[in-house]
Amino acid sequence: METLESELTCPICLELFEDPLLLPCAHSLCFNCAHRILVSHCTPSEPIQSIGAFQCPTCRYVITLNQRGLEGLKRNVTLQNIIDRYQKASLSGPNSPNETRRERVAPEKTAMTSPSDPVQCQFCEQ
Fold this sequence. Notes:
Blueprint: H1 2-7, E1 20-22, E2 28-30, H2 31-40, E3 53-55, E4 62-64, E5 74-75, H3 77-91, H4 107-110
Antiparallel strand pairs: 1-2, 1-5, 3-4
């Protein structure tokens, strides 16, 4: 699962992608992380709307923005769906607090009263 989680992690915030954008180079960024990249290139005389391009932080490909800015980039809906399923699976996985584990059989059920008594499995009670 660690490898999968690394594939679902934004290279900027190092968290699971949130509202991922699909860049033309096929990499992804969180919408807010892409916005922070643009803000970091702003100056008082140059507002964020005037920034027409930025580099992909993964491969350095120059991402050219249209007049809509980041809103002009496509959302990576497939990646968001995978992240949603991953988060649900993580919440119900083996280390989650909500997991229903098999209860152990009480000690009196596993104790043999005589050598001829069969041994019972502590999980399936057989």
